[in-house]
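Annex B. Sample input.
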Amino acid sequence: MPRPQLHPQGDFPPAGLGRRFAAICYDGLLCVALLMVTTFIYKLIWMGIVGEEKLRQLSESGALDGDPLLSTLLLFTLFAFFATFWTHAGQTLGMQVWGIRVQNADGTAISLWQALLRFVVAIASWLCLGLGFFWSLIDKRNRSWHDLYSETRLVRIPKQKKT
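Annex B, continued. Sample output.
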């Protein structure tokens, strides 16, 4: 299936580390809100299944600490957030604000597989104290680990003129 061409088109410069981190901070706030809503819905469903009193007892006893089902759900929710934005428009909301976009070298939207690779390697980059992000400072084309492994580019796009 052909990938959609992203607009605007052109040969854009790579995004710098400062813009990357600014977009990450913006998206981080959105992700926290998304995870809070997801957790709230999860707890409501649990309450509907076991009842409010039993859920309170489980919570107070610590039985729900580190809930693997909730952790898995939150991880999938985060991936769905990023994958949806990256594969359709190439930009999350934070990336839109800071004028950057993820794309293939030919300017097309990335695939779901590339989004998964970006997501997993970005997590590994954070676990290595951000080393994968700081790699862009020594790479000649400003690529981070997740850019390299997913064969994608993070570019700075010009502001759109309103007509």
